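Pilot study result, target chain (314 residues):
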Amino acid sequence: MSRGYDSDERDGDRNQEPAPAGKPDPRPTAYGRTAGTSSKAARDRAEPGRERNREVAPKSRVNERLSFRAIEKWYGLSEREHGTLREIGRFRTIDAEALFKYRYAGKPAAFRQEIARLQQQGLLQRRSISVGKNRDTLVIVALTKEAAKLVRQDSQLPENQTVYAGFVKPAEVPHDAAIYQMYQSEAAQIEAKGGKIRRVVLDYGLKKEVYSKLACERDAGALEYARRKQEIADEQRLPIVDGKIALPDLRIEYETPEGDLDHVDLELATEHYHRGHMALKTRAGFKMYGFVSTSRGRRAQWEGRELTATVLSL
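Predicted structure:
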């Protein structure tokens, strides 16, 4: 479930690394001769504005791509490994079993080798946690900070796609890991109709957008605050339910077969949802998916399915 709404919690800021700053070139600068003198003052007079222009020159897209290619060459990543890092970065935490199912189906050896190699290179973190009443084992993966920097330079991701690094709180892991499976179910339906996935937005990102703007209106009067809240909700294409901006667990933005941009908001309901919470999310118009943890041997398995109107009315 999404982590509440209309609160000041800033989950969207957790473990998000800023875009990497360019590293200074360790090589000494080589100056040519200038009218028979090598003094700095003479060089500055001969080339006015040289130092200033060097400092303010914007970083070009070409340089960014060269930087990315250098990193790519250093790590020697395959296209599939790039795709694996992109996938994990978009969702913060993924169940390793689900990652195998959707990216390495029928290729267990490749899965083991590539995940181990990414981990050895310091690009991937892997943990085993105990979940459920029977303390079943769930293996999860997340990007390291270095991997997130690499993925953010990947031209195959839209510029406004958030990339995450690190793990969430242990109590939130089972729910967050299951969001990836919910995404796969919905993405399959979108693509079957000819749509193309453009971006995914977790509730962390939506919270950051909403609450950073609402925080600026704290001192406004009640009427002005309510007006601004409605404006912000409209900007983010989110509903207001019972006076609060409702936030989904996941938003999928996609292009329709006609070339229009659209989105669908999804909520992942667990066995811990109480009736009132589910009713509120239903009123918000979110598409609901059910999620139940079951024990099967030593591993925790996650079963998810879309909740129809009949199920929701039970």
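One observation from the pilot: Residues 102 and 184 are 8 Å apart (CA to CA). A full batch analysis is planned for the follow-on phase.
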